[in-house]
Specification:
There is one protein chain. Helix content is 67%, strand content 3%. By secondary structure, the protein is mostly helical. It has a two-stranded antiparallel ribbon. α1 runs antiparallel to α3, α2 runs parallel beside α5 and α3 packs antiparallel against α4. The protein is elongated. Bound molecules: MU-OXO-diiron.
Length: 190
């Protein structure tokens, strides 16, 4: 909350002249992004469950960390909307796939999904520019940078899986490496 013209009452913010800090169209688009981030979390949780089921515990750990990161992405937007006096509107989360051919299939699907999320973030940024919404542009910059890292991580793992052909000792080594990933929370939990 910035400036002296806005006051918070019962989770509602009223601003001078009843002006919203972000537009209705921006609010709707950010709510849709919460749903996409939650679906991402659901997708990776499903992948974690599958890899646990087939005994690839390192892969399962990697996807579990990814699930937790996606939940934080959703919560960043949730907190932002609340801070801006906008309404959070949670929608139904689609059912993710539950079976996968092999780890390569999972990482190709992960990369494809992240490319979809990158486009969605870029569309949000375009909208924020169009709306002359400077605060949301700054807020979205974190996501733009994050998507570069997400796609790079997926491409790196796909490259390693290609190298070993998805078999033998190489798979054991990758499973061990992915088992080292840890989750570090970047947002305060209240
Ligand atoms: Fe939240 Fe993986 O994008």
């Amino acid at each position: 909350m910035t400036g002296g013209s806005a006051t918070r009452r019962s989770n509602q913010v009223t601003c001078q002249g009843d002006k919203k800090m972000i537009s209705k169209i921006m609010e709707k688009a950010l709510n849709e992004q919460i749903n996409k981030e939650m679906y991402s979390a659901y997708l990776y949780l499903s992948m974690s469950a599958h890899t646990t089921h087939i005994g690839l515990d390192g892969f399962a750990n990697w996807f579990m960390v990814q699930y937790k990161e996606e939940m934080e992405h959703a919560m960043r937007i949730y907190n932002y909307l609340n801070d801006q006096g906008s309404k959070v509107h949670l929608k139904k989360i689609d059912e993710p796939p539950t079976t996968f051919k092999d780890p390569m299939d999972m990482f190709k699907k992960t990369l494809e999904h992240e490319q979809f999320i990158t486009k969605s973030i870029n569309d949000l940024m375009d909208l924020a520019v169009k709306e002359k919404d400077h605060a949301t542009q700054i807020f979205l910059q974190w996501f733009v940078t994050e998507q570069i890292e997400e796609e790079a991580n997926d491409n790196e793992i796909i490259g390693k899986l290609e190298l070993i052909g998805g078999k033998g000792d190489g798979m054991f080594m990758i499973d061990k490496e992915l088992g080292q990933r840890t989750f570090v929370s970047e947002i305060p939990t209240e």
